[in-house]
Write a structure and sequence with these properties.
single chain, alpha+beta, Alpha-Beta Plaits, about 15% helix
Length: about 120
Amino acid sequence: MEIIDRKENPLLNRIEIRFQLRHDKEATPSRSTLRSKVASLEPGSSASTVVVKDVNTRFGQPLTTGLAFIYDSSDSMQIEPQYILDRHGVEEVAEKAAPKPAEEPVAEPVEEVATEEDVSGGEE
């Protein structure tokens, strides 16, 4: 695998890498294979924080090019759309919210049934 272009993006806490991979007499590499190979290019990174975006294999040629983002942490990856994270098997980081106070049950109004004694209709 060779790096065509490398760019650091400190605002998004990631490194953007354009890569090129020759795979003679082999099938197009899977997304997980590409993630691990891209992670090996950058020291101190792991495959779990790599997102592979564009992957393009030329018809009839054993050459695959693509774009990968190497994030500093899994929290930084949350700027990616959810469908991209789903493709890579990354679970959404649950936001830690304050526990909600327990709601008290609301008493339902009781219907009063009128009896003969309660009815005042003028006949007493």
